[in-house]
Design a protein that fits this description.
Length: about 425
């Protein structure tokens, strides 16, 4: 989808969008691994700094985005730091997975479902979430050194980092951004941008999957609002990167952009869907559908702009935005179903009550599992898929970044090679 890059003394600002999806965000890490590998191979002597001027993220993608932004002066090292976390993941690093903790949080939800609102009221049950994600706070302190961010922006290694969350209090979809002083906030219908110092609380808010993880309180415009996962009500996922000045945007999805008809899984006639299937369907609507719609919208806008004569376009503020989309070539819920038994026993039992099967051949509930399966067996397979999918698009990726136009290093003179037989 990316067009050939033309050499320019002012290279285009490249933005990165990492979408949401809980444990599915492991796929993004494989993509980043492949990008670092391709750049080393195609651009010998490339600067250490990140190829991305603007980095945006939502939900678990916000955590990866922030971690990458905090290493904008050394892209390879930043990628390695993210990889070391995801390839050794355990669910206990994200949420309390022991039996007592799961009973303390999840059992309250089950009580509401089984006992009804009257008994729940009598017992004063006020559950905040299905799982307690307090361990994630500790992980963020080591994975995302946000204290580096202001210096990296001041030194020009990064133009902006943007994190999106959804306010339960106001209903607004809010993009918090930290970047250069020239960047201005924007306001659109039901969504707005706020300049702020990005903190770990912003990351926890953006990744608070509805019902699964608790909402997070954030200060905004002199007040306090409670925020949840930024994928909720996100009608234009690519918009923050465009508003912040990206001219080319790499979009890394967490689900297939379209499903071949012969791979669609349908329940047997007359089989009522389980709660896990309904929850998985709802999460897919939250995390996946808006991205495909937004990409299609931008493509149509680009096609329309291409019909306008170049002179007229140059005289206006309108310009096409180049997109490169990398998304899974396989269904991640099918992969999750194969690894469902890797979930901690207490969590597996809790999800089993919602209809998640532990049989590898049964993908019912696989969608729900795919968001919560923070276990190395699953995350490593997703990373491998992201790596392979990126290399499969190698030529397109290199054209997008301009890595296909880097001249090869000059060959050493023949006489010098004879004098130095160790020269490669």
């Amino acid at each position: 989808m990316a067009s050939t890059v033309t050499p320019d003394t002012n290279p285009p600002r490249i933005g990165l969008l990492l979408t949401g999806g809980g444990a599915r965000a492991a796929y993004q890490v494989g993509v980043l691994q492949a990008l670092a590998q391709l750049r080393r191979a195609r651009v010998p002597g490339a600067p250490a700094s990140s190829p991305f001027s603007i980095i945006t993220g939502t939900s678990a993608g916000a955590i990866n985005a922030a971690s990458l932004a905090c290493g904008a002066d050394d892209f390879d090292l930043a990628v390695q730091r993210i990889v070391s976390v995801w390839e050794n993941f355990e669910a206990s690093q994200v949420y309390e997975a022991d039996l007592l903790s799961v009973l303390r949080s999840g059992a309250r939800w089950m009580s509401l479902l089984s006992l009804g609102w009257l008994i729940a009221r009598w017992r004063r049950i006020k559950p905040r979430s299905l799982l307690d994600n307090s361990p994630l706070e500790e992980l963020l302190r080591t994975m995302v050194p946000l204290e580096r961010l202001p210096g990296l922006i001041a030194q020009g290694h990064l133009q902006a980092l943007a994190i999106t969350a959804s306010s339960y209090s106001s209903g607004h979809h809010v993009t918090f951004f930290e970047g250069g002083e020239e960047l201005q906030p924007w306001v659109r219908s039901q969504r707005l941008a706020v300049r702020d110092r990005i903190t770990h609380e912003h990351l926890l808010a953006s990744s608070a999957i509805p019902f699964v993880f608790p909402a997070k309180a954030l200060s905004i415009n002199g007040g306090t609002e409670y925020f949840g996962d930024g994928s909720m009500r996100q009608t234009a996922p690519v918009a923050p990167a465009i508003h912040l000045g990206s001219e080319r945007i790499l979009v890394v999805g967490a689900g297939r952009m379209s499903e071949p008809r012969d791979t669609l899984q349908r329940a047997a006639p007359g089989t009522y869907p389980s709660l896990a299937q309904i929850a998985g369907h709802a999460m897919s609507s939250i995390f996946l559908d808006a991205l495909a719609v937004d990409i299609e919208r931008i493509r149509r806008i680009n096609q329309t702009l291409n019909l306008i004569p170049r002179e007229a376009r140059q005289a206006s503020a309108l310009k096409p935005v180049e997109l490169l989309v990398i998304s899974p070539s396989e269904r991640l819920d099918q992969i999750a179903a194969r690894h469902a038994d890797a979930l901690p026993h207490a969590v597996r039992s809790l999800l089993g009550g919602l209809g998640v099967s532990s049989k590898k051949a049964d993908i019912k509930g696989g969608a729900l599992t795919s968001y919560l399966l923070f276990e190395a067996a699953y995350t490593r397979e997703l990373m491998a898929l992201g790596h392979a999918d990126t290399l499969h698009q190698e030529d397109e990726v290199c054209r997008f970044f301009g890595w296909d136009q880097v001249p090869p290093p000059p060959a050493a003179p023949r006489e010098e090679r004879r004098r130095d037989p160790l020269r490669v």
